Amino acid sequence: MRVHLVNPSDVSFGVGVITPRWLYVLAGATPRSYGDPVISDETLESFQIDQVAPGDVVGIGIHTSNAWRGYEIGRLVKEQGGLPVFGGIHATLFPEEPLVRGGAAAVVRGDGDLAWADVLSDCAEGKPKLLYEGGSIEAADFAPARWDLVPKGSYMWGSVQTVRGCPKHCSFCSVWRTDGQAPRQRPVDPVVDEVVELRRQVPAANVLVVDDGSTDDTAGVARRAGASVLMLTAQPQAPLPQQADWRVYLPAQTMAEAEASSSAQAMGSAFEQALWILFDALVPRLQAATGQRANDVRQRHTNLE
Ligand code: B12
Ligand code: SF4
Predict the structure, then answer these.
(1) Into how many domains does the chain fold?
(2) What range does the domain containing 282 cover?
(3) Which among 162, 188, 213 is the end of a domain?
(4) What's the CA gap between 187 and 185, in Å, rounded?
């Protein structure tokens, strides 16, 4: 029984910007006794169905915008005699859908880090359950990503996660429903180990932190390190900006006000445009103040950290 992991996409570009983290986390959660999973990110290349043999397990991760392609792959895998197993944001919100539309042998709701080994062992015995409750596991149990399996030269950014869950409840967002409202903060050491491993395996990779609503955490970390906090905000009276040392007020519509607003622009666009203009004005000044060369800044995509 081989294990495959597929990130569905209707279009393939040959190169990608950001690693889909779940692929490498689930690879990390795959017990070594099954061998290295065969990873296929369809944003790079289409999935080759003929590599699936009868009895193979094919893990398919879906969010709402790629669920349809995921179901297509699931049906093909089933026809080929493989076992399609679905997980991810959309499968967590609508677990019955992959069973009806994607030929699913099993669906995992919530975190896959621990549940995946149970799924594989049940599949190996030929009796997968229809539904596995992965739940919201403790942060110390988050599986580290298998960066050694990332195809070299394919991505610009490796995605690392330090926290899952968000205490807010923005109406347009699914995070607080799927990841919960209690932030689960990973211990520092495994995060640092992962970043080091990422840079070892993919030296050219930038590190992208894909945390859920992390403004409170970032400000907290800065404060604990003795730094002052300056916040750019459209809501200077809100509790979080009130705790900052300085506030820069950008009077523009944000995502949080989108539903009540009559703006012709898409939600949050005006605030984002205000930020771009401000940052584009700030970056050359910060570059000069910190004595950095234009090329250094360019190589980090204008990150001035
Ligand atoms: C980083 C990120 C991006 C990045 C990078 C995307 C990438 N290539 O990875 C960028 C900015 C490019 C992006 C773009 C988009 N994103 Co985005 N993104 C995220 C973010 C913040 C983190 C994703 C992540 O890496 N999480 C860490 C991994 C480990 O968690 P995970 O994927 O949930 O996987 C766990 C479980 O779900 C489960 N699991 C997942 N897959 C599988 C599969 C199997 C078989 C099993 C067993 C388990 C399993 O196990 C994993 C480990 O526990 C999430 C928010 C979030 N908290 O998920 C939004 C999020 C996924 N994005 C979202 C959206 C809407 C988009 C866009 C459609 C936006 C747009 N309009 O263009 C695009 C889609 C791009 C694409 N084709 O993928 C929504 C999806 C909502 C939904 N209902 O599906 C989210 C949830 C944000 C939100 N506020 O609601 N995104
Ligand atoms: S703060 Fe961000 S992650 Fe949290 S609910 Fe709002 S949009 Fe979602």
Answers:
(1) 2
(2) 250-305
(3) 213
(4) 7
Q: Which distant-in-sequence residues (6+ apart) come within 8 Å of 192 by Cβ?
A: none
Atom of ligand 2 nearest to the CA of 176: 5
Q: Note whether 113 and 142 are within 8 A (CB).
A: yes
Residue 115 CA: nearest ligand 1 atom is 47
Question: Of 71, 121, 75, nearest to 91 (Cα)?
Answer: 71
**pLDDT for 113-147, tens place per residue?**
999 999 999 999 999 999 999 999 999 999 999 99
197: Cβ–Cβ under 8 A, 6 or more apart, which residues?
A: 144, 147, 148
The answer, yes or no, to whether any atom of ligand 2 lies below 6 A from the CB of 174, is: no
Inside any domain, residue 225: no
For residues 290 and 197, membership in a common domain is answered with: no
Same domain, 169 and 270: no
pLDDT digits (tens, 9 = 90+) for 46-63: 999 999 999 999 999 999
Rounded CA gap, 284 and 164, in Å? 34
Quick check: CB of 267 below 6 Å from ligand 2?
no
Contact of 198 with 205, CB cutoff 8 Å: yes
Reported pTM: 0.85
Same domain? For 138 and 196 the reply is yes
Let me know if residue 218 belongs to a domain: no
Q: Is residue 23 part of a domain?
A: yes
C-alpha closest to that of 164 among 138, 144, 198:
138
Sheet holding 206-209, edge to edge: 16-18, 155-160, 206-209
Q: Which of 185, 213, 241 is where one domain is finished?
A: 213
Judge if the beta carbon of residue 111 lies within 6 A of ligand 1. yes
User: What is d(CA 304, CA 296) in angstroms, rounded to the nearest whole number?
Assistant: 9
| Closest approach atom of ligand 2 to CA 172 | 7
Among 85, 213, 198, 116, which Cα is nearest to 150's? 198
Q: For the chain, report the end-to-end CA distance as a whole number of angstroms.
A: 46
Residues 64 and 200 in one domain: yes
Whether residues 36 and 168 fall in one domain: yes
